[in-house]
Amino acid sequence: MKSEEREILKGLQNKRTKEAAFVQLISMYKKPLYGHVRSMTGNHTDADDALQNALVKAWKYIDGFKGDSALYTWMYRIATNEAITLINKRSKMKVVDMDEGHQKGMATDGPSGDEIQRKLKEAIDTLPDKQRQVFEMKYFSEMKYEEIASITGTSIGGLKASYFHAVRKIEEFLSSS
């Protein structure tokens, strides 16, 4: 655990400084957590909702934090779970992105950045949940396998296999389209 995290944890354990310490914790980790959740959800609105839900849960359960992992890892796990919950809820509602139809009709000399991003998102969306989660944490958030293992409760060997299979499936999807 970083020394800065240790200081925040001390502040969280004191009723008089708990709120200020939590605000400090949020300011320290809001951007990386948002980036991770955004890569999972694919849009700002859903990422914002998932992150807000995660921060509320973190505040609600901060007294139960035992220190077995780093605060960042604990918050990352909460944010990941909130993003997955939101994604599952949205997929059940089968919401269609209206902008997708407009983007397809545009002619260019080659694929635009948006088109490439859309194809990559489509490829990632075809992955099983576990592979998608591992791929996004490793590729977009540039997390180490040890961190991902701590968050997901999966062995490093299992994570490496999931990432390998995810990359292979994405490559196959992109080469066939």
User: Percent of residues in helical segments?
Assistant: over 70%
Number of helices: 9
Q: What is the correct CATH architecture of the largest domain?
A: Orthogonal Bundle
Derived from helix and strand composition plus strand pairing, the structural class reads: mainly alpha
Overall shape: it is elongated
Mean pLDDT: 83
How large is the share of residues in beta strands?
under 5%
Radius of gyration: 18 Å
Order of helices and strands: HHHHHHHHH
Number of domains: 2
What does the model show?
This protein folds into 2 domains: 1-95, Orthogonal Bundle (Rna Polymerase Sigma Factor, Chain: A), CATH 1.10.1740; 104-177, Winged helix-like DNA-binding domain superfamily/Winged helix DNA-binding domain (Arc Repressor Mutant, subunit A). Helix 1 packs across helix 2 (18-41), helix 2 (18-41) crosses helix 7 and helix 4 (71-93) packs across helix 8 (145-152). It is 77% helix and 0% strand. It has 9 helices and no strands. By secondary structure, it is an all-alpha fold.
